[in-house]
Specification:
about 130 residues; alpha+beta; 5-stranded antiparallel β-sheet; 5 strands; binds guanosine-5'-monophosphate; binds zinc ion
């Protein structure tokens, strides 16, 4: 947990609102997030500025700045994060049509919030090419 990190605040608020694995609750004004999933390793919540009908951020509970600071010991965690993304896509009904998973890394990658996260974006046809 990093005091200045908004995602760490969202994670700790989600953890303190109950032990249920799935929460559908709005939390504090400061850490605005509608939590859709949490377990001991990851938390998922809806993006405050959605770019598509489904826009969920899946984040490790442990503060990792970006893919640029991942360690070998984080490999299981990152695999779990993608399995949760797959489950949430199914729950939001976007699996059949497909979806996009994005992890911006560093300033040139478009990262604005420096707590590693995967964007799960779907519910519409994605634009291409990226970049
Ligand atoms: P990045 O630009 O780092 O890839 O993604 C950061 C994302 O976090 C953006 O899509 C932005 O809309 C979202 N975001 C920023 N602050 C908050 C917040 O307080 N709550 C929620 N739910 N999303 C946020
Ligand atoms: Zn953090």
């Amino acid at each position: 947990m990093t005091d200045s990190c908004i995602f760490c605040k969202i994670i700790s608020t989600a953890a303190s609102t109950g032990s249920a694995e799935r929460l559908n609750t709005s939390i504090s004004e400061e850490a605005k997030a509608s939590i859709v999933y949490r377990d001991e390793q990851v938390t998922a919540f809806r993006d405050i500025h959605p770019v598509a009908p489904t826009h969920i951020l899946i984040v490790p509970n442990k503060h990792i700045e970006s893919v640029g600071t991942l360690e070998v010991e984080d490999e299981q965690l990152m695999g779990h994060l993608f399995t949760v993304a797959r489950k949430l896509a199914e729950e939001d009904g976007i699996s059949k049509g497909g979806y996009r998973l994005v992890t911006n890394t560093g300033p040139n990658g478009g990262q604005t919030l420096f707590h590693l996260h995967v964007h799960l974006i779907g519910g519409q046809r994605m634009r291409y090419p990226m970049g």
